[in-house]
């Protein structure tokens, strides 16, 4: 077994050069960088030596999967792979079938290391590249990768990694959806027991993304398609310093799909089960006026959840009524009327607004041109009456606005997918979307390995 001292002695010249650079460093920054370089050199040297040493250990050979003959060693063959600390290289035994069967080459030590025959890059580096691409355009991701660990990779390579692991994330989700379809419910996520006692909120919204008119080329007209998003979270009421009650979201999870309401419904159902919808003390649904979402609510959640129509959206309807009614009252401007009814709405008197609209519709003094607008708003409010009980919602500590899912749309979709000149292919979009979802939902690392690959776990820089 090589000791650290031996390893340093073996590569003394290279280390000496790096050390001289450190000695010549004047400024703090250059001193730190020279020392960091020595650190990287140590890391790479240690990996190289350990791999070469371990590859020497006696090897037992399996049988050829074609003809069943015992594989035979063909001697040591070099292997090279790019890692977080740069290229590492070692020599390990490769075996082959004595009958020279096709595809019988075997390098058992590679399997011990958990690397595939055609693998060019070590998985901790692939994970970091994918993580950077989750937040940044591909060309920026590779620049940062080079700044962070001195490894140069093309943006096309990182793009391919994202396709591969994004596809795996999608396949994993599809298996879970298939299971659910066959009546197998997903396991509930491990949730803090304190959070389990809090109400579960589900909020839904949509956002459009620019797609390429045809695959393969960014040319041609942009085609916008809607991505549907749902947010699930536990809501905690907290007192602010000014003694006001605010709601805080905990255990936030996102669901998103480029597809129709049915596609969202399946994913939402899956996630709601994972988040303990069946045992939550209360379930709250919030969305704006979009009909598809309310249909989804009525069909799948109305039995279990309290529906809340986004307050700002409801107030907007009152604004439209005020505008329709216009300047026909000498004693009051539309703005004054709007402010009064909005106040009523906020404090739980929506039935009075519906009555008032009913009276306005009957008054002969109401201009005929205003009536269709007033009628529409009256019907709208009547239909959503149970979803407009804002006083009661507030009292129970529920949020009354869907701002939480609107901001989720911003950081899940707009920040990464709607940059200047960006146009996506559906496949490329879906792969990256599922990696982003995996990251925000805390399911990113299991895509890459069974054990955590997070650098700070091993880093002294804590
Ligand atoms: Zn064979």
Number of strands: 7
What fraction, in percent, of the residue positions are helical?
40-55%
Shape: elongated
Largest sheet: 5 strands, mixed
Distance between the termini: 31 Å
H and E order:
HHHEEHHHHHEEEHEHEHHHHHHH
What are the low-pLDDT stretches, counting only 5+ consecutive residues below 50?
Answer: none
Describe this structure in words.
With 462 residues, this protein is an alpha/beta fold. It has five domains: 1-54; 61-120, no CATH class; 123-184 and 425-462; 193-306, no CATH class; 313-388, no CATH class. Helices cover 48% and strands 16% of the residues. It has helices spanning 4-10, 12-24, 28-54, 108-113, 123-135, 138-149, 155-181, 193-196, 261-274, 291-301, 311-325, 334-346, 350-362, 371-383, 390-395, 403-417, 426-440, and strands at residues 72-83, 86-96, 200-211, 223-239, 245-258, 283-287, 305-309. The strands form two sheets. It has a five-stranded mixed sheet, with helices on both faces. The chain has a two-stranded antiparallel sheet with strand order 1-2. A hairpin with a 2-residue loop joins strand 1 and strand 2. Helix 5 packs across helix 6, helix 6 (138-149) crosses helix 7 and helix 11 packs antiparallel against helix 14. The protein is elongated and about 100 Å long. It starts with a helix and ends in a 22-residue tail after the last helix. The mean pLDDT is 90. It binds zinc ion.
Brief sketch in words of this structure:
This protein is of the alpha/beta class and 462 residues long.
